[in-house]
Design goal:
The complex is a heterodimer of chains A (186) and B (276). Chain A is mostly helical and 186 residues long. Chain A has 6 helices and no strands. Chain B is globular and about 80 Å long. Classes of the chains: A mainly alpha (186), B alpha+beta (276).
Chain lengths: 186, 276
Amino acid sequence: MRKRHARDDAAPFVLPSGGELARLGALLLAALLLQTTVAPNIRILGTSPDFALIIVVSVALLRGCLTGAVFGFLTGALVGVALLEPLGMSALVFVVVGYFAGRYAETADLSAPLAPVVGVFMATLAADTMVAVLQFLLERQVPFWFWVTRVLLPSLVLNTLLAAVFYLFARWVLRGKGVLHADQTV
Amino acid sequence: MNRRRVLQRRIVAVVLAVLAVGLLTLSFREGENGFVHRVRDGAVRIVAPLQEGSARVIEPFRDGWNWVADLFHAKSENKRLKEEVDALRAAVAEELTTQAENEELRALLEMRDDRIYPEGTEFVTARVIARSTTAWYSTVTINVGHDDGVQRFDAVVNGQGLVGRVQSVTATASQVQLLTDQQSYVDAIVVPSRAEGLAAGSVTGGMTLQYVDKSEAVRKGQFVVTSGRSGSIFVRGIPIGQVENVSSQEVELYQNITLRPAVDFRKLDIVMVVKR
């Protein structure tokens, strides 16, 4: 993973076209439906797969940090509303994850097959850490070993295993060409 | 030019993050009829039927998975249950010797016959349509809400005992905080010793009975039910669980009591909301 000197090959940010917005909307709907209807009824290794997180990371990897952050915010807010979770928590986590996943794609030379797996792994690590910190701030119990063994490790395994499939799905929906398609501006 | 664009992107990300924190604050501070709750109401109205459909499709697979998991645990479970039955037999024989204890056992029998609820109590039958997707919350979503007369803090029970309480309500669905949630506390009483305490959930999914004085005689295998003390949202006698382990340390004021919940939370499907 070589750091790219991205300041030199900066491309102007172009507002998404109507078709692009529709495709992003379709992905948002898919993320919302999977996370609110399928994930709550699946429990593997004691946890549920985070479809929304994987799709946010995939979109950020394919479309860059700005789209990633906005897509993350909308996905998180809607998931929070529909799952009756504390509103804003998922939105905050997904904004950060979307932004930095996009930055990761913009600044690192990654082969397309490796990017989603590494991206989702790192994003899960970051998201679970942020959620644990937020839980702590909300005065809930956050035992360290419980977090490691019952939250972090299962979700790392599960999300990373699902990463490639959802990345390919997102790329198909967004009509990517198999290369990272992010804005190269640092 | 580049620098300005970089700055703009960072500003957008920061604004979105601040907005998210604002939403988080609002959702904790706002009342039940606030803007956020109304938006949530509308969203749940759309999502709840989809969740219900998904739950029905996935249910056979979940049952199959639970069945396989249960098979693996069956042998050790069988041994443990035999020991428990022996202990319970001895305990029951001992308890039957006094009249006061007899009364409590009779209360238990009545409870099993569903006579613990006052005459005229109304129930709303509901189906579990979603479970919390994170380990930090022990909650489920059920397919009844305001439209069915469900209110916040209504008790939720099933054939095995107390499931939890209604935490938030929308028009067509409600979120139930399970007894095992780390912020669930229920006034409880041990039968037949009458020791009072607070049945509390924990992040690990286990349950404890807190604030039971050391002078109280609590033994493994005894039943724990809701106390129904005045001001409590639960009527007296709903089964919460059984005492699994009792210990105490000299430096502590209270006993350390762990409970095995009466309800199998992995297999929750049909529940009843007790209307107040």
